[in-house]
Queue: 3 jobs
Job 1
Amino acid sequence: MSNILTHSPALVMALPLLAAFLTPVVGRFNRKVLGWFVSIVLGLTLFITLLMATQILTNGPMIYVFGGSEAGLTLPSGYSVPIRIIFHIDGMGIFMGLITAVVSFLAAIYSLSFMQKHSGLEKYYALLLLLATGMFGMEFTGDIFNFFVFLEIASIASVALIAFRSNLSGEPAEAGFKYMVVSSISALMVLFAVGLFYGQYDVLNMATIASVMQFTQLDKIALILLLTVLAMKAGSVPMHMWTPDAYSEAPAAITMVLVAASQASLYALFRISFSLYNISLNTITVGWIIIILGILSMFIGVTMAIIQKDIKRLMAYHAISQTGYMLLGVGVGLAVLANPVALESFGIKAMEGGIFHIMNHAMYKGLLFLTAGALFYRTGTRDLNKMGGLANNMFYTTVFFIIGAAAIAGIPPFNGFASKLIIYESVYQFNPLLSIIAMLVSILTLASFVKVFHSAFLGPQLEQYKKVQEVPKSMVFAMAALACIIVLFGLFPDVIVKNLVHPAVMSLINQTNYTATILGGI
Amino acid sequence: MKEEMSRIVRTITTLIYGFIIVFGFYVIVHGHLTPGGGFQGGAIVASAFALLVVTFGNQGIKGFLQKDIFSLIESTGLVLFIVFAFFGLGVTFFYNIMANSGGLFGNSAIIGVNPGDLNTGGTIPIMNIAVGLEVFAALGVIILTMSAGSEITRKKENS
Amino acid sequence: MKKSIFGVALLFFMAFMILAAFGMRPFGEPTVSEMDDYYIQNAQAETGANNVVTTIVFDYRGFDTLGEATVLFTAVIGITALFREAVK
Amino acid sequence: MIGNFPYIAVAILIGLGIYTLIFKKNLIKIAIGITLIENGANLFLITLGYRKESVAPIYTQAPEGMNMVLPTPQALTLTSIVIGVATTALILSIAMIIYNKYGTLNTDEVRRLKE
């Protein structure tokens, strides 16, 4: 048992990878078991992630040296730099890992019936597993070049998945092309920044870079490059053009995973600005840049969403808008990082709100995309004007949609309210105007979702949808699981914040801990 | 565009492609001693297949190069690679258990400049071979798929 | 209009890059090389292979190589998935 | 001063790539732009590894008593080249699919997904 625990960081990567390599072979023998095979593998991965979470939250960060003579031995004797790839999983990493594990597991379950009619299923499932692997790698790795490799795995897998339905029409390929260009540029700029770090310090481990960081001009250039491209991959506003296309053209289950994938980029953004640079950078400037990006994302996202006719495009714009809340919360934390008094009084609180919102957003936005997928599965359209009266036919979907919409609009007792409340309270102490904008955006979100609810679900039963039935059981199960998480988080936010979110925030803020875990000498 | 190239190109290709493949495998197997390795050698082997596809056209190689076999080789290579990484799990994932063990590929190297001994390196040569198989098969599948795909485009344009 | 904005952005980017180029250490004179010296000195003894680059690729940073092989595999799966109905 | 020329070459390559991405309308040219940036990044990595008056880090029949260049950038570049091959192959395949569906490679005519 302890052996499994020691090797769990390797297992959580190797298990989905091995399954992905075997999926084409399994699919050749029996297409029926394929979906179940993948679901079981992702379920096991979720189980290992939960094991790791308990371990990390009780005993502190987890280290795994690949190929080392001992899993925890980071430095070779007599040398002061790590020479091997190290997985470095702390509170924040495992927090993101849990999101990835839950989301990809439910996506596999949902796909059991959602993707049944499509051809090339073994490829679909292999790509889903690879996408999950890439995200895990991005979140767990402590090595900056390794991060680049996993960023590429995640982006190539998501591009192929976005373009998966291009046999039916040209639009998915178009969205895939757009996303491919965006993600290749981001990955290459990350590679360039890796070169800048390596050229100056001759190390690739992030904790080691943080400890020797001099904040030269080259480091500033690397910071700007990294911030820009990671904000782009996270779908923040000035660079958000790929988001609605990619989210709306991908299959619904994949869209849910894509939301989590863009949050993995957001995680990397936070990791780099907090753990790599921390107070050596001008935290007030960078913090305000992130806050302004957040405010712009919030506002432009929601205004663009209101005018959309396509249900998935509308939700995609809302995803941009909700990304703004996370940037706002964490940006406030970054802006007051150098000021211990302010950090103690509201900075940590704001970051808790922002980080908690990441998980909440993954859950309710996933649920909303799944309900949109359920509507598409039964009606064959995503156009809101063509839908109507579906509440008569699809009871469960309607209930789940209401839960998701209430959560995204910040209505108690759902989880969106819990995290938004923390953000409002703490940001108000920092700057009241920002808090008011955030509340305004929330009201606009509610208005937009009332419109969707009205046009898709309410009204008289339409003639062409007379025979529409509830979606199959596996889809209902996936949606129900997400709805349960949403309600539970909404009812007991304090427990989650105390046990899961607070350690994540502290692991971001405390840079000395981060470097000391690798280099020793606390 | 004509499917096949001229007689000169076809003759030279049939003469030369075997040598390219052998050279590729040489580069793969000697990866731990000389410049090269799994990726480079795999790319060389795949270039032989690219040459064949260019020379004989997509129809000409149908019975000779098959995508399914390539896919199988690719999966085999990857599984071999990850399995040898798993063998180190007694210590850590990716631990080189066979280095300096005296068994297969287990000789210790002479420290410093030496003429090179093929039987060294532990899991490194095996992983080289695994990656070499994976790379040439993967590139082969890419070449075959894309050339078949471009043929569809060409047909569409002509009709 | 849009093009001129992009043009200005490109100019800024180029200025950045040139700035970075002049800020780098001189070509061919690495200031610190502790990690690489470790590889050069200990690779032969630890793995038995003569080619230091290969030892890094398959031993010290073997996990990167697994990721890289996976990228290639992903691309192959993606391409065959894209052409799955056109090419049998 | 002369020591910085490799880095300037890198800057020019990456700048050319970005220029291609912004101002060219053809999907294949966009793919070429990405390849240019990638080559710039690879060139940057490999220049970082050079050490004056040194030989390749391979002990097989190496000259005695010479310094060796830094091996890590070579390994990193190898990795990023293979990743680049995968990216380019996928992006060209998507361009082929788009051409099959729409009969054009011009980005202005391809644009079906609107705001």
Job 2
Amino acid sequence: MTNPWTDIKNTDLVIVMGGNAAEAHPCGFKWVTEAKAHRGAKLIVVDPRFTRTASVADYYAPIRPGSDIVFLMAAINWMIQNDKVQWEYVRNYTNAALIVKDEFGWQDGLFSGYDPEKRDYDKSSWDYVIGDDGFAAIDMTLENPRCVWNLLKDHVSRYTPELVEQVCGTPKDRFLKIVQMIGECSATDKAMTSMYALGWTQHSKGAQNIRGMAMLQLILGNIGVRGGGMNALRGHSNIQGLTDIGLMSNLIPGYLNIPTEKEADWTTYMSSRQFKPLRPGQTSYWQNYPKFMVSFMKSMWGSAATAENDWAYDWLPKLDVPAYDVLRMFELMNAGQITNYFCQGFNPILAFPNRGKVTAALSKLKLLVTMDPLETETAHFWENHGEYNDVDTASIQTEVIELPTTSFAEDDGSLVNSGRWLQWHWAAGTPPGQAQRDTWIMAQIFQRVRKLYQDEGGVLPEPILNLTWDYADPLDPTAEELAKEMNGRALADVYDLTDKTKLVAAQGKQLANFGQYRDDGSTMGGCWIFAGCWTEDGNIMARRDNSDPDDTGTYLNWSFSWPMNRRILYNRASADLEGKAWDPARKLIEWNGEKWEGYDVPDISPTAKPGDVGPFIMNQEGMSRLFTRGLMRDGPFPTHMEPFESPIPNVFNEKMVGNPVARVFVSDAEQFGTSDEFPFVATSYRLTEHFHYWTKHNRINAALQPEFFVEISPELAAEKGIAKGGTVRVWSKRGSITAKALVSRRLRPLQCGDKLVHVIGIPLHWGFMGAARKGFGPNSLTPFVGDANIETPEYKAFLVNIEPATTEAVS
Amino acid sequence: MMARRIYSQSGDHIETTAPVTVSRYRGFTRANHWVTAASLIVLLLSGMALFHPSLYFLTALFGGGQVTRWLHPFVGILLFLSFLILFLQLWRLNLPRPEDATWVSHIGDVVRGEEEKLPELGKYNAGQKFIFWGMSALIVVLIGSGVMIWEQYFPQLVSIPVRRVAVLVHSLAAVAIILIFILHVYAAIWTRGTLRAMTRGTVTGGWAWRHHRKWLRELAGREKRDPAE
Amino acid sequence: MTTDPNVDSPRTAVSNPPIQPMKANLGAGDVMRASAMPDLAPPERELTPVAKLIDVSKCIGCKACQSACAEWNDTVPEIEHNVGMYENPHDLTPDMFTLMRFTEYDNPDTGEFEWLIRKDGCMHCADPGCLKACPAPGAIVQYTNGIVDFIHDNCIGCGYCVTGCPFNIPRVSKADHKSYKCTLCSDRVAVGQGPACAKACPTQAIVFGTKEDMLTHAEARVEDLKSRGYDNAGIYDPEGVGGTHVFYVLHHADKPALYSNLPEAPRISPVVEGWKGATKTVGLAAIGLAAVGSILHGLLGRANQVSAAEEHEAEELVERSERDA
Amino acid sequence: MNIDLSRRGFMKLAGAGVAATSLGAMGFGEAEAAEAAHVRAFKLASTTEVRNTCTYCSVACGILIYSKGDVAAGEKAEIVHIEGDADHPTNRGTLCPKGAALKDTVHAQTRLTEPRIRRPGADRFESISWDEALDKIARALKDDRDTNMILQNDAGVTVNRWTTTGFLAASATTNETAWLTYKTVRAMGIVGFDNQARV
């Protein structure tokens, strides 16, 4: 989230699209009801189902799963056509005025440079015209036909209300009512907030869905302001933290990258990370990349990482593919190429698509290790549970070790919420039986491996033997020690970069913020963006001062928010070119003549003069990007792409299936179904009574929503002769499930052109372990394909068929 | 001449001649009657306890409110069955006859005890018949409404509005049956020589002559016609 | 953190629960009415009436109230089946004192589809039908702050409260044969905490405070709803039962029945009134009179006795019939 | 008037019948004293209060955990109740249906209490000691790493990549756990590394 949960109370209009906040994040949604009650804010919900969020909405519109880009581009088109644009913001704070290469273009649903063989684009044409001065060419009048604004205008011109009705199945009048409501927020004294979640990410073009709304928000001038923003509600309690710390195939903490094979050495790796400003005088903060990278390497290998050995660059793995993401790993596993696999608090056979494939893959492992407080389906994947897990136990040769871990209530530490707050918590209970903290387990495993290398030697022992492990008890590091390590520490006296005599951090002291990070090896820090969370002042994450001057909702003294305790990202953009708040009633930070000050920590150098330095300091342009250059694999603008399994062909190019650059493994391509065999669109989602596959272990939540069901419209029920509460069979090309039928008018058949599209809702909370009745999850049916940029599986739009079940499901 | 009984039933007979005693109820019938009577009293006490706060203390007789709550309906079933058997034995002679009308019209003489002004009667007079039919009807009403409000076993049997009517009907019927019960007991006591009919099973000839002369005549008549009996 | 009602919805949880032992501020001395105890001593003091407001228009049907209720009251609702609806458990039970009820409604006036969700549970009537119907002294009490509570030590499980309740709330346990319903968390209120459901409610659709404050807040909510086109928005605080200490804000106050058959004009059924009123007194009087009457008649009146002459007549009759033989 | 025997007999009987009503009328009912009205004892009295964060979604509601016993003081602590933290800016004491029932997850019947192993082909788990389990894991890691570590690619570039062992990290663990996990996994060269953020 760009803004904290508590800021939502400052909004005038909430649009929930690609999410279901009331249901999945009820306590955060409280701030929507506060905004409604005390600001007279309105709530719009656009969703295939009339959700619990819709039940308290001012206006609702249905949409066909997987057609969001059409809706969003049409909204942008309407804003442009009806002059609902925050012009000063667009001209100065976005790259609208920058000139794009003549070679860039779009036709038949594809951008310039597409190679069907590689299923990839040559992105060289997707860039600015760079002038002789080395800066991007610009036309502040926005008259140049090749400026981003005019290209965007042309790009979205195809997306009309009629096209929305035809592709999304959203009635034209409903679409128009919604864009009118949105349009009002282009005024400087009105703000709209976007709340979205997996309803947008779990598509083969998920990232583009989100870009679509981000662009709309920029055009309305709603990024960086109170009550505005792009708010990804996020899932697990620390999903933000694990992303920040980069527990992903290709990441290094703080959004740095694991090198690829092409980056054979440190110099090459750094050469592509100079991040030279593309406009004069811009910050381009990523120029500090080396400081963060070197400090990370020092936190890993300490004194063994030196300038001479390029900070032990060789010890970092180099990728031959963009990432060994879970889909790729299970593809390899299924091909028998994986030996050992660890699931730390993860339940793949319910979480990953095409459960049949996942189970087959796990069966080919030599060793599976699970670490969890609860009995997971994955740990029991080899156990036969009748129709709910029909496996041949004896033939499964995988050895499974199930390790009992503590729960949240039994350990100390911090979690990062979706508003980027790092909040510390304390253990309250004694762990049951022999359960142990994950930190203890990881330390035990590592120390034992290290001992083996010490005693026996082996392949490449150095990174293991030299890993920094200076904890009081090497077999049980404390949360405090680890938090301090992430914050960063001075390894030598650190002096001010401009005033070399000024000591900023003495050797051995905790660093106050990432401004004190150095690239000369004098500092170490595991996760630069967390710098400031545990300083010489102590544990900043444990702060509990809930005072909030003037009720802005920033709560600066409550815990710690990365980066730099900043609560609203891009908050510089909440003020105009003179540094005055666009909306005085919603002042956040302002320029007082010498520096920026206000209710939040400025997201810009405190002394950076307004007008000189753009608000989007992480970008080389100093501006936000309506046109993303080559940064996304599937286009610099979002363009409509159907899901891989779609009831109707792509209106721009009927030969185009799904996302043209999404990675598809051969075996999976054969498992895509077509609408003649599978006429109905299915979408998966959470219910408010449950959290993923955990609360089915809890007797109370199990009682509140006891048994697996699917939701269908009365029309479909009638067509198929399905009775309310009856049992149905739902199947796709990849699997079949049985469920109770919940027939509800909250699902409407959608008229898409001449095709009537029925949507089937499939919640995801049931399995074969725990207190609730045994059931299935949507992943038994979903396709094994992910987003073209980040490989998030397509759970939200796929094809199935349905019929009344002949035999009642036993449960 | 026929041997058909009109005013008496098999088992009724002259037991001794000097002095004359007449067998009115055989042992089984008497036992049956007292079981019914006992359960009616238990029901009366437990029912009253739950009927009026000032009588709640009666639950102490049964070991508290919870016991009273579950005991009452079971005894109710016992009463129902026991009375059913009694009913099968007595219903025929309780059918109304012409002389009953005359009897009712002379109710004043009844209360004054001037029976010489009354017609001769069979085994039962109109008053007794009223008690018999009244009890029968009310017991049916009580068992019916009782089951409808039997929370422990039939909470869902009827809708709550019906249940409300049932509980009202049950209490009204209960009041009625208690009044009849009092009348029954009192009449039995006021009319001397009656109690022994349900204790020893016999009444004196005089009692029979005074209150149920047709019944006595029939029995006397039967003595000579078929001594075999 | 602000607590300004203009910036903020009323806060049920203004402070966290105490953990030091403290005396309950709600006890026998605060009882204003008790079942089957007509001659109850008057309360020692008058507490400020409290109320729980349920703003149906803010409710997202998340069931946090059900969850918090079960946790606080240590009940374990049964894990049932899905029968094609969102209500789970399917009805109030002795282990589930409150329940979200869901209604799908096509609004004929606006043409919009609405999903009406109502939290069902004890309304804590000012004139409680359960208390009136209950035959067990002190099994149901009403405190001066308006809370109607069941004292289970006195409950006999007869189910009369079920018959008496105009809202069909109490449920008698098959396990211990005692009747259960929402206590308005009397144990929490007694130490200055709001009910568990109100504290948990994510959108503060459920708020708890003095009845006066809650009414003021409710009126403001009604205004907001009217401004959003709900012309018939209003407060549901039924007069028929003397008002309630759990009351609703409804978008369609003119049609309460839309919300899973919320009674239009609830009141204690005349049948129950008749039963617990006239019948009780008149019936008892009649019985008393009959009994006493018969005694007096027995004492003063002349018994109906058989004369020696009649015995003689009988003997003659018998002899005669034998002679004839 | 003369009261004969039978009349006295009558009175005995009648007495019983009347007793009930008259006694009641005399207010004997009150003799049956009811249990005095009382509210349930406040169950958080004398518990230890600990501040924590809800483990479910990333709204990260503040919660209060009440236990008998105090872990901070090194005592054995049994969690008896969990509810929202009224001081928390985001949730202000409120909790969703999951958060409100957190205690039941902590005490779930399916909580794991000992390390277990399922041997190849076996149809059940069997107990195993921590030491044995951890040694087995360490050995399996080393053997696979030594066999399958890719030191260089075909072009002779040093890649030091280990692709045959994978690790899924948990998005509900703390940052501190995540960091220790990161160090361990990366130091060994594992690239098959992911967490729930992917799905």
Job 3
Amino acid sequence: MNLLENYEELVAMILFVIGFTMLVFSKNLLKKIIGLNIMDTGVYLFLASMGYIKDALTPIVPAEGEVNPMDYINPIPSGLVLTGIVVSVSVSALTLALCVRLYKKYHTLDLDEMYMHMKKEEE
Amino acid sequence: MMDFLMNFPFITIVLSLFSAVVAFAFKGSRARFVTYFLLLAGAVMSCFVLAYNLSSETGYFVYRMGHYDAPIGNEISAGLLEPFFVLIFEVVMLLSVLGGKRRIFSDIPEEKQKLFYVMINLCHAALAALCYTNDIFTAYVFVEICTIASCSLLMASDKGKSLIAATRYMIFSLIGSGFLLIGIILIYSITGHLLFTNLYEAITLLWRDGSYNFPLTVAIGLIVSGLCVKSGLFPFHFWMPDTYGTATPAASAILSGVISKGYIFLLFKIIFRVIGFDVFLATGVQNILFVFGILGMVVGSVSAIRTKNIKFMIAFSSAAQIGYIYMGLGLGTRTALVASLFQIISHSLTKSMLFISAGGLCDAAGGKQDFASLRSCAHKNKVAGAVFLAGALSMVGVPIFAGFIPKLLFAASAFEGGAKMFFVLIALAVSTMLNVMYFMRTALTVYYPLGAENGAQAKTRACASFAVCTIVFIALNIAVGLNSQPISSLLEKGIELFMNVR
Amino acid sequence: MELLIPIFRMILLISLLVCAVATALSKKPMTMIIIFTAYSIIMSVVWVLLRSPDLAITEAAVGAGVTGVLFFLTLRKLHLIDKDKEEELRAANESKEEKNDEK
Amino acid sequence: MMKNKFSEKFSAWLSGEVDLTEKIAEEKRTEAPSRISKKEEAEETKIIRSLEKKEIKLSFKEYKVLSVVFCVILIGILTATVYFLPTFASSDVPAVNEVYEHYVAQGRDETGAVNTVAGMILDYRAFDTLGESFVLFTATCAVLILMDDKHKKPKKEMHETVNYSRDPIVKSMAAILIPLILVFGAYILVNGHLSPGGGFSGGAILGAGFILYAMVYGDEQALKVLSERKIKVVTICSLSFYCLAKSYSFFTGNEFNGVHSVISAGTPGDILSGGLIMPLNIAVGLVVCCTMYSFYMLFKRGRMN
């Protein structure tokens, strides 16, 4: 119940907002893509810090014997983040490819400028 | 033996994923037939699942994906609504792909047509998974597949315009995905569950307890707004005209008729099965949806009047129609919810029909989309003109067509809505008026009597698959319009299941 | 030792924030991407501190490795790297000329 | 007069010539309705276009202001949310519940995987992971749609790449590093159920190794080793295997089908244990590796051959 104790989550949320701002505001398409990546890592950091337990170990259990769950961190967020990282790399590859094609066509990375070029072309 | 039918939802999903790989392995146009076959098979399987659920006692079953039960493993579930909507989506996709076949050949470079069909398979898989899933993170993964695949449908046309539209669509979709993801994770962090059933229990308890009400409200708001951005509710509808206007007709029909509806269905499922409708009403998010829905209805229609491009007009009309759906959700009464679901069905059927027929009209006008060059082109392509007229009548809400029923239900539900009644009725009246205006204008334009100067032009022959598909579209539309009673009672039962059976 | 780890964690988090802001503010695409790669590497160390080595390996290979390579290839396709180089070369030449003049 | 004007306007709009909102164009038309010379028409369209442009700019501006406000609100809301969330690193959070306990305490015996994360993503929640590998497949197809210029004539690259294989430092370093990277990737891939890592990390490392190979020895050489055909075959086989294997385990997972899975978990800790986890890890790893490598090739060359 405290902002100072939850500093990890706070940083994650700030990263999310920075990324989001870049994704929405910046005119440069490359910057938008980087913003997307930062936004996603912010979310993943938030998720992974939810699974962290103080003084607990990596969830690789010994091959034999009883296992006390409290000795290990929560494996669920790790699995979800793993999925998320792969999703975000595929999305950024696709967006980068779009970016290359658009630059070849319009010689700019600004979406508004491209729009203008397109209008001109139509006329 | 009957129990074997319970495997069908999972078979639909995995088979369509598998068929995407198979279509990728094939050379040339054989990928097309894989897609047709899969959509047909999917539709048949959905029929069986629906029949099974209608005949069974509970009308609902949960299927384990793996060897472990609910909180540990993953599962999918099917009630009455899920197979019904999957069936509608499959039929619309099949008809759009068949009807837009000729334009797919002419719009998309030959070597990319195979990949276009691969993407349709993936869209199909993702939509089926979105409808059937019972796990919130699985829903996110398949939302991403749906996003990438639908963006690829757009950019397959390989023109500068469609690439820009695809980029815009992608950016809006990614904003939506970001919101959805962080909402899901907030919910996970305060409940510790990912499966719908357990989430519902945990959230109901938490809400009664009251300790996490603020994060819960924020999470619900983020999930709802993420899916709203993706489906194009009013303040986020900027991407719609470009996206739907520049794609090949089959792609725009699928994007507007199926994919945005898939997101809306997921939203319904999350609201009823995860959040619980009582908690959702208590957060007050539905009032925001109501306001934006009504604004969307009016603003979308006004924009549709102002535009000069037929496809942009249909796209803006889409924005208006999606406003209806959210308005129903915002009203929150039982009749309004049925009306919203009915609106999803009728809009899905009608809008894809309009896009396909607009493609035919534009072909007849020499590939141009503005009204001036579309003048009297319905005489050249009679089938497309007739279908467009039927679609317009359905959109406007003429009885016997499918579009009439949701408007009737909305008007009926307005009287249960208390203070919101006034706004609903006014918005319905204004929006219908505007609808009539722009569809009348289009119909008058395309049926403008042939003058001396353009009367001599040759008639373009409509290809057979186009004619058959569009006729099936009209037949379906009228069938839904005439048999509204069984469908709306099915929807009502489905909502009952959504709310009460877990 | 007990005290050092939280401090290390804080330092890493602050540098994450600094990197994120720096990417947002940088003008040259090249700088932007290099800082972003650094951001990914710091992130993978953060994963190790959060006891998720799976994520650390994946982030290092995917975030810093493959995504970085894809960004650089994009820059190369857009001929933005060469522009920077040309400018540098021009600047170097000018400074040389200035030196020559001074001589 | 007013009525007349409006009806004229309306009929013009009906026939698709003008928009109701375009006042200037409308007035011009009414001024000289009898003869519209080409020049005037051109001027008219110019005015309309400039108006449209202004409108676009204006809408972008409004949109920007809206998003600034939106972002500020977002920061506030999210910070407030963090304030209300459970404390970081404590074991008293909602996420530490029976699901977590089950995964850690019984995961080893039920799935046979010592690495709980691998057991979780490939057995308990395998449907997610199936979707995830298809995200990669979708992205590969999407990049192929965008970048594949196979059917156009290959253009000569403006800036010829430096051939690093002649550089003694790069060459000897690559000769040491590439086998190491590949072996490390394979190790992580195969040991996914025993140690940290698994399909995604191992596959990404393998892919990075192949990318390094292509960078040092040139694309042609790399394509001789890992050609387009091979990549296609490997991707298709791995994904099909994944689909079939998971269908089998989903199908047998439900009792009413009357079929029981014959795959046993094996002895935890052995290399051949964990049932389907190791083969699935390898399949996922191969898909990831091929995807990363084909991303590189498509971005670098614009084609895969």
